[in-house]
Each structure stands twice: as structure tokens, then as C-alpha cells.
Amino acid sequence: MFTKKRWRPSPAEQPDALINEAAKIYKVLSNSTRIKILYYLRHQTDEVDVKTIVNDLGLAQPVVSKQLGILRRYQLVCSRRSGTRVFYILDDPHIMELTDDMIAHVKHEIKGEPHPKNLY
What number of other Cβ atoms are within 10 A of residue 109's Cβ? Predict the structure, then answer.
């Protein structure tokens, strides 16, 4: 007689733990300034220093530094220090796919276009 073995996730695979971590990332991405910084970094060919981000986005340096610190804490960007300058680059391509997909979704909503139906 065949008995079906029940799936038992490892502690790292616990659905509640994964869902809670995912919720934290969504909370990080709920800030438009952080999305703006991620989107900006997405379109750079190399790492960028804080001063360049501040100048290009027209944001205050303390605001940019604070938001970059949050993004770094959640491993969405990584940094490198050179003297007094700190350079940032994206650290997680999955987040950019998610962000790109959300921006594409918003573009559909703004245009009033239907969403693709063949996703599943």
C-alpha cells in the first residue's frame, strides 16, 4: 500500500516565514522615493555615487542617504566606499523584475488597456 508522504518544509522554507519576509520587502518598496532610486540605478551602466544620485534625481542628500541605507539593509542595493564617496549599484535582479512588472502594470492602468490574458 502506497502512503503519501506529507511535505515538511525546512525552517527556511516555512510558508509563514517566507510570506513575512516578502511582506517586509513590499513594505520597503511601498516608498516612491526608494522606487525612484531603484529605477534610476536600474538605468545606469555602472555604480553611482550619492552626489550623482542627489543631483540627477533632485532630492536632498539626507533623504537619498536614508533611503539608500534602507535599500542596502534589505540587500536591494550594495555599496562601496572610496575615500569620502559612497557608490551604489543594484544588488538583486529579482527586485528589478518585480519593479519593472509593476511599472508595466501601472502603464496599462493609465492607458486603460487590458492586461495580457495568457499569463497562466
Answer: 10
